[in-house]
Design a protein that fits this description.
- The chain has about 525 residues and is an alpha/beta fold.
- The protein has 18 helices and 6 strands.
- It has a 6-stranded mixed beta sheet, sandwiched between helices.
- Helix 3 (about 65-80) runs antiparallel to helix 5.
């Protein structure tokens, strides 16, 4: 084949293969989660993968004395390295193998392939083998780029919330009473109804405690969506991001989307993709409004450890789980973000997790939750008033690291899963209940700290769950309990005439702006 004798062609193909095979794992995972990520998150994983490919190519070149052979060797190693956990999971279904069984087996196979490559003497054969591996990879990269590039452009034009309704004319009056506002979001905290029906636990005493402190506690509040991102985008903009959705249809949209081709829910949710929800959260109406009213914005957030695309532009103080630096917390700070960690979870590196504790999400959630709870109790009061405190606490959502007294618990189940790791009993529900009880007691302490006897100087308090427990996490009798939320409100004057038993979270905030800021927002449909 005369064309292969071209020197440039012979050099280009062996170099291109390792580069593309190094880029592809990062590109594919990023494209699959493009709505949740920012492009800079791909930089360090990409650099790591390219360095790995370079080292492998150099070592193989010394052994095989051939660029083409080294290229094939590198590509094969990258396939094994980045897909190790997929290989392990597949084999674990049919055979009870541990990592110390599989790793030597794969190394044995790999070095036999190296020996086979060393025996191939014809350069054209090696280049043809390079092409056989390279052409499908070029096609895969092209397919992922067709997903990624439009999505990145879409982020730039993502929906930005406008004000939800007409406004009163006296906005920005400095003589209006401006109380501090605390909005505390508990991730997956069950409503009074749900915890009773599903867990057989009576949380009524907590509701009575709150009422004794002057709170109004609606018992039948519901969110429109069962996912944090949609509900928080909705709440912080005081408007729904879509028209009403059926509960069963929405749950299928989240967990069984392939079964809903052509269904109306696909069109409804497609109008507000996750990239738009992240933008709506980051650029939300409520914080802009309060900022214009002279409020300082405190943003205490746990979910940004998973979604770097969330970046509250109006926040004066930002405290996220992954940013906390304390002596007690320093040992559990990850050197990588959630995207890089997900890549590592798929790779051969993760086979060493039991020795090096690569995945420290349990430590991060334990210490991050503890730190923010203590911050709410002790530090937040030092910030000048008026202030708006938004605290999203990733508890009682998994991982289950707290017992009922708040002590660290290891070896807890994370959630029911399919395959060889399925939890076949109700231990996950027990682990959830322990964290639920812990969080309930912590909330009592926070309320006691901030609700003083002189109610005229007290803040507005809103305690809500973003959604209820969801069927993919727990063994639920009624999956629609995922939409039931806990909702409790404290007004300094004790006047709750505008609140009602089934008020939706978005309407709770509309009532507050009407009551304390002289606005005239209409109530939306409750769910």
């Amino acid at each position: 084949m005369v064309s292969f004798k071209n020197k440039i062609w012979q050099v280009l193909i062996p170099l291109l293969g390792p580069i593309l095979f190094a880029v592809y794992p990062v590109l594919a995972l990023y494209a699959h989660n493009v709505d949740q990520l920012v492009l800079t998150q791909a930089c360090w994983p990409l650099i790591f993968s390219l360095i790995l490919a370079s080292l492998c190519f150099g070592a193989s070149r010394l052994i095989l004395k051939s660029n083409s052979g080294a290229s094939i060797s590198t590509m094969l190693l990258l396939i094994i390295f980045w897909n190790y956990m997929l290989i392990y999971s597949g084999i674990a279904i049919i055979a009870n193998l541990e990592h110390w069984h599989l790793l030597p087996l794969l190394i044995f196979i790999y070095f036999h392939l190296l020996y086979f490559l060393a025996e191939i003497k014809q350069r054209e054969t090696l280049i043809n083998l390079n092409l056989i591996l390279l052409i499908p990879m070029i096609l895969l990269i092209f397919i992922n780029l067709t997903i990624l590039i439009p999505a990145e452009f879409e982020k730039g034009f993502a929906f930005r919330s406008s004000h939800p309704v007409s406004r009163s004319e006296d906005r920005g009056r400095t003589d209006r009473y401006r109380p501090d506002i605390y909005l505390i979001i508990l991730d997956e905290y069950a409503s009074l109804k749900t915890i009773g029906e599903e867990w057989g636990y009576d949380n009524g005493p907590f509701a009575e405690f709150l009422k004794g402190k002057g709170f109004f506690v609606p018992r039948n509040s519901e969110a429109r969506y069962s996912q944090t991102i949609e509900n928080m985008a909705s709440l912080l903009n005081m408007e729904y991001i879509t028209e009403p959705v059926e509960k069963d249809a929405f749950l299928k949209y989240v967990f069984e989307r392939d079964s809903l081709k052509g269904h109306d829910i696909i069109k409804i949710m497609g109008k507000r993709p996750q990239s738009a929800c992240f933008q709506m959260m980051s650029d939300n109406y409520l914080m802009k409004y309060l900022k214009d009213q002279g409020y300082r914005i405190l943003f205490l957030e746990g979910i940004t450890q998973h979604y770097a695309a969330i970046n509250m532009h109006e926040a004066d103080i930002t405290l996220s789980y992954q940013d906390i630096k304390t002596e007690a917390y320093s040992r559990s700070i990850d050197a990588v973000d959630a995207f890089f960690l997900e890549l590592i979870r798929k790779s051969a590196v993760f086979s060493l997790d039991s020795f090096f504790k690569i995945d420290k999400i349990s430590d991060r959630n334990f210490n991050g939750t503890r730190y923010i709870l203590n911050y709410l109790k002790n530090e937040v009061a030092r910030t000048d008033s008026p202030k708006f405190v938004y605290a999203h606490i990733m508890c009682p959502h998994d991982p289950y690291v707290f017992d009922q007294k708040g002590k660290y618990v290891s070896q807890r189940p994370s959630r029911p899963r399919e395959g060889p790791y399925v939890i076949r009993n109700n231990t996950v529900n027990k682990a959830y209940l322990d964290q639920y009880i812990f969080m309930t007691n912590e909330l009592k302490d926070i309320v006691d700290t901030h609700i003083q006897r002189n109610k005229k100087n007290n803040p507005i308090f809103i305690i809500q769950s973003d959604h209820g427990p969801r069927p993919h996490h727990y063994y639920l009798k009624d999956k629609t309990n995922a939409f039931q939320v806990f909702n409790a409100v404290f007004f300094p004057d004790g006047d709750y005439g505008d609140l009602y038993d089934n008020i939706a979270p978005v309407n709770t905030l509309r009532v507050i702006l009407n009551k304390y800021f002289g606005e005239n927002y209409d109530m939306l449909q409750d769910r």
